[in-house]
């Protein structure tokens, strides 16, 4: 996940409408898999893997991020969380790549690197920012290299040797408003975060709007701010 956004929100990250909605979409995306051991790549604080540990039957999480100063062991919801700068072969059965691939030059190479470290049958859940025409100073601020259409991120997973199970866009409910704002700002790519704290009523309204989208999330291949892809190692 984007460490700069974590720095902005700090301890409030779990209460912000965007991360609450994305965590709910993550649960929906991996529903039915019943993962036991999580590998969270580019994990930062491990927000999403810790969320799954608290809200599902997952038993442990291995959080990998080159930004960690040192390896350390922790726990969340009474379950072990290991923070590591890298990893060798592992028996993790669900790999999370939450807003990671847009930061690297060789996106399929990074997926392949971790696909070689997990057993056959392991699933990968990747999220990336959607649609190049939405490029703005927010992407520059977060040091993104690209945004994706759904077929593009699916092709990335396939190129890495994985089988795509399904893909969908999320944040479709707020897509028209966000697109209008981005288009009005076109040509102004000054680095600046598009993430902001809101009052409780506004935050609650945005979270509720995204929650209404969840029942049709899995079939939305039309539009959204984020693309979600679930894939499987053969």
Task: Please write out the topology.
Layout: H1 3-9, H2 17-29, E1 37-41, H3 47-55, E2 60-64, E3 72-76, E4 79-84, E5 94-98, H4 107-115, E6 123-129, H5 137-141, H6 150-159, E7 163-170, H7 175-184, H8 200-213, E8 226-232
Parallel strand pairs: 1-2, 1-5, 2-4, 5-6
Antiparallel strand pairs: 3-4, 6-8, 7-8
Describe the protein.
- There is one protein chain.
- With 234 residues, the protein is α/β, with parallel strands linked by helices.
- The chain has one domain (3-232): 3-Layer(aba) Sandwich (Rossmann fold), CATH 3.40.50.
- It has 8 helices and 8 strands.
- The protein has an 8-stranded mixed beta sheet with strand order 3-4-2-1-5-6-8-7, with helices on both faces.
- Strand 5 (94-98), helix 4 and strand 6 form a beta-alpha-beta unit.
- Helix 2 (17-29) runs parallel beside helix 8 and helix 4 (107-115) crosses helix 6 (150-159).
- The relative contact order is 0.18.
- The model has no long low-confidence stretch (mean pLDDT 91).
Contiguous helical run count: 8
Q: Quick check: average pLDDT?
A: 91
CATH arch. level architecture = 3-Layer(aba) Sandwich
Can you tell me the number of structural domains? 1
Radius of gyration: 17 Å
SSE sequence, one letter per element: HHEHEEEEHEHHEHHE
CATH class: Alpha Beta
Which structural category do the helix and sheet elements fall into? alpha/beta
Tell me the total number of β-strands: 8
The separation of the N and C termini measures: 26 Å
Q: Identify the CATH homologous superfamily.
A: Vaccinia Virus protein VP39
Strand order of the largest sheet: 3-4-2-1-5-6-8-7
